Amino acid sequence: MQCPVCGAIYRPVKGSRISVEQKNNDYTQETTITSPSSSPTPYSPTCRRCKADLSDLLSLHDQAIWYHRQALHFLSKGRYPEAVTHNNQALALYYSNADFHALAGKLSALQGEWREAIASWQQALKFDQQNTIAANSLQTIELMAKNDLC
Predict the structure, then answer these.
(1) Angle between helices 114-127 and 132-149 (to 10 degrees)
(2) Tens digits of per-residue pLDDT, 14-56?
(3) 2 DSSP 8-state letter
(4) SS3 state at 20
(5) Start-to-end CA span in the chain (Å)
(6) Are 93 and 64 in contact (CB under 8 A)?
(7) Which of 5, 63, 74, 132 would give a disulfide with 83, using CB separation of 3.0 to 4.6 Å?
(8) Would you call 81 exposed, middle or buried from its count of C-beta atoms within 10 A (0-12, 13-18, 19+)?
(9) Which residues contact 2 (CB under 8 A, 6 or more apart)?
């Protein structure tokens, strides 16, 4: 996530509370923000650099995560069209999330749409070169292609 005012980049860190790692050219700083569900008082996260209110940005992020989890649920039930719809909604809210693209690739592959799957996995690797799902999937396809040619 990027601050819309000053451009500081925040990367969500997994945990029970919302934790945001701020990366700038000169330093890395981690800030923990208590989410509304774990605190009775309202919160208003602000950018550490320019003090802009980031609550709307975090709300969009939370919505995207919700859609992604719903997509995973539908995937586990074999309901691929619904999974695709929910994952596309997650991507619309948070396009730069590599996991969302990796799931899009998996869903495309499961439906036999190999070109779309490969494009999604490549996109996932553009956002996160360490994304194991995308990397392993592309490696498997590459190995399958080599074996078919031999």
Answers:
(1) 140
(2) 543 444 443 444 433 343 333 334 444 445 588 888 989 888 8
(3) B
(4) strand
(5) 45
(6) yes
(7) 74
(8) exposed
(9) 8, 9, 10
The pair of structure tokens assigned to 134 is: 């995308």
Confirm whether pTM is higher than 0.85.
no
The stretches in the chain having pLDDT less than 70 are 11-44, 149-150
CA separation (Å) from 111 to 78, 125, 131?
Answer: 11, 21, 22
Q: What is the pLDDT of residue 57?
A: 87
Cβ burial of 51 (10 Å; 0-12, 13-18, 19+) is exposed
**Both tokens assigned to 30:** 């981690």
